[in-house]
Amino acid sequence: MKTKDRYIYPAIFEPDSDNRYSVSFPDLPGCLTEEDTVEEALRMAQDALKLHLYGMEKDGDPIPAPSVPSSLEVDDSGFVSLVDVWMPAFRKSMEIKSVKKTLTIPKWLNDLAEREGVNFSYILQKSLKEYLREHSDEYLD
Q1: Which end of the chain is more exposed for a tag (fewer CB within 10 A), N or C?
Q2: For 17-55, how does the pLDDT look when each residue is reduced to its tens digit (9 = 90+)?
Q3: Which residues of 94-116 are buried (b: 16+ CB within 10 A; e: fewer)?
Q4: If DSSP codes are grouped into helix, strand and coil, which group holds residue 79?
């Protein structure tokens, strides 16, 4: 599956009885958000679109072509807006994002490391990179 750097999709913005805005993407079922103001809804629509498309890319799902905005039906109180996302920086931020891992080590090793002020995250990252360099054809920074 080929990924693109830029995606532009129409989103439907609809106010509810509390004047909150729900946002949906007709071409991307499940890509939704809801916010208090139009400004927040526009910003969060962009975040929702990036996350949804990133997940589809990672899962190898086909990414549909966007609808023509004028073909979408919207209630009188709602409107359609194009939402534009630039994926390279977002992909990179997702790839370097830290994740929490739970692991088990012997108590004596934990006690000694804590006494010495060891930064567990740093040591684990450094050790994993060294291990992977030795056991992989890919170079890791």
Answers
A1: C
A2: 888 999 999 999 999 999 999 999 999 999 999 999 999
A3: eeeeeeeeeeeeeeeeeeeeeee
A4: strand
What b/e string do you get for 39-70 counting C-beta neighbours within 10 Å, with b at 16 or more? eebbebbbebbbebbbebbeeeeebeebeebe
In terms of phi and psi (left: phi > 0; alpha: psi -120 to 50; beta: otherwise), the region of 30 is left
Distance CA 105, CA 114 (A): 12
Give the model confidence (pLDDT) of 78-137 as tens digits: 999 999 999 999 999 998 888 888 989 999 999 999 999 999 988 998 898 888 888 776
Number of residues that this document lists for the chain: 141
User: Which residues are registered as beta bridge partners of 14?
Assistant: 22
Residue among 9, 8, 22, 32 at smallest CA distance from 78: 22
